[in-house]
Amino acid sequence: MARPSKKAERTEEIIDAYERCVVRFGVEGATLQKVADECGLARPLLHHYVGNREDLLDALIARFAARGEAEGAELQRYLPKTGRSRATIELLFDARYASSSHDILLYQALMVAAQERPPLSDILRQWYESFVDDLGGELAAEHPGADAGAVRAVATGIVAMYFNADSMAPLMPAAPLFADSKAAAMRLLETL
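-> structure tokens emitted (192 positions)
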């Protein structure tokens, strides 16, 4: 296997530093100077490797989207052939798989920035809709007689409960929070 190029390695290091700065200072506060300081490079080298702040943001968004797709694909691989809806809820509301504080803060920083950046807003909305659609597909497959609107509402409710529990986990004991959220999600599932 070929060794990654120095440019590719350095680019990843810069994007890592930018991500840490976005988590700490938000998108607007993650200046090129802060990123340069964080990764230990001279500011002109940032331009050489990744370009300007918008290029950095584009790279971070692409990484965030790819990470979300990979997590969704990994979840799909773990699901059994039958009982997939319940298994999905079991995995989503397992406190061992709660997002890190870093990931939660990154998501929140991107959500704030999305209010002023329609392309980012579109990407985050598509990511969310894909999550709801995938869960809705699982629910519809297991409940073929259920009303499509009810399936969509249940999928949306479960996803909302997941995001709520995941975002609150750093502030309170995760185990009871996830257990209560899982119980609520299961009750919602039973309405189909």
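Residues 79-192 form one domain.
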